[in-house]
Amino acid sequence: MRLTLVCLVKPVLHGYFRSSCSWRVRIAFALKGIEYDQVAVNLIKDGGQQLAEQYKTLNPMQQVPAVEIDGINLSQSLAVIQYIDETRPGPRLLPADPKARAQVRMISDLIASGIQPLQNLSVLQKIGAEKLPWAQHFINRGFQALEPILKQTAGKYCVGDEISMADICLVPQVYNAERFKVDVGQYPTIKRLNETLAEMEAFKRSHPSRQPDTPADLRA
């Protein structure tokens, strides 16, 4: 395996307990059995700690997550997930088969580019009082596209019967949907997959209610 001495240093995840993107990285680390340290970046406190100049050196977009790993800084959750999949042992997060791998990337990108950014805190702050209908509209719009795709690709998990990056993206997005009072029951395949994944230890351990920076009133 392509491991060097630098890989023996624990990765450091700079994230926020309820951030979908941070949660994706936590799930991937858990699935791979990778030990890591966490540094909380509170997106609300002090006007948003991600906007501090010091943090900008880690993530020029001033978003979470940022990951220090193997002597480099990475942002963008899908890039982090693919990097650790390519450099660490453990279950594959992208299938070996090119067609299945393309399907995993398609589903992941649909969620990570087409749904989740439209409920980002920075976007909702601009929307103001209409943030709930705004979020519901774009989550439903995305799920209306995702549901028929998953009907074709899913087995036990999003693509066939092996856990993948697509599953890592799905669960945090369903959590967001429920936060914004979207009726997930309208999407039976999404609902079934989420219920299956939510019972897995890697998804439980990485859940927003179980993080070092989770507020006491939200802690499991």
Helix and strand layout, with pairings?
Blueprint: E1 12-15, H1 20-32, E2 37-40, H2 53-56, E3 66-69, E4 72-75, H3 77-87, H4 98-114, H5 121-127, H6 131-153, H7 165-179, H8 188-198, H9 201-205
Parallel strand pairs: 1-2
Antiparallel strand pairs: 1-3, 3-4
Task: Give me some keywords for this one.
220 residues, alpha+beta, four-stranded mixed sheet, 9 helices, 4 strands, 48% helix, 7% strand, globular
Cα-atom radius of gyration:
17 Å
Biggest sheet statistics: 4 strands, mixed
Taken from the alpha-carbon principal axes, the silhouette is globular
Give the helix/strand class.
Answer: alpha+beta
First and last CA, distance: 37 Å
Stretches where pLDDT is under 50 for at least 5 consecutive residues are none
* Beta content: 5-15%
Task: Give the SSE string.
Answer: EHEHEEHHHHHHH
Task: Give the strand order, joined by hyphens, for the main sheet.
Answer: 2-1-3-4
DSSP strand count = 4
Contiguous helical run count: 9
The pLDDT mean sits at: 95
Helix content: 40-55%
Regarding quaternary structure, what we see is single chain
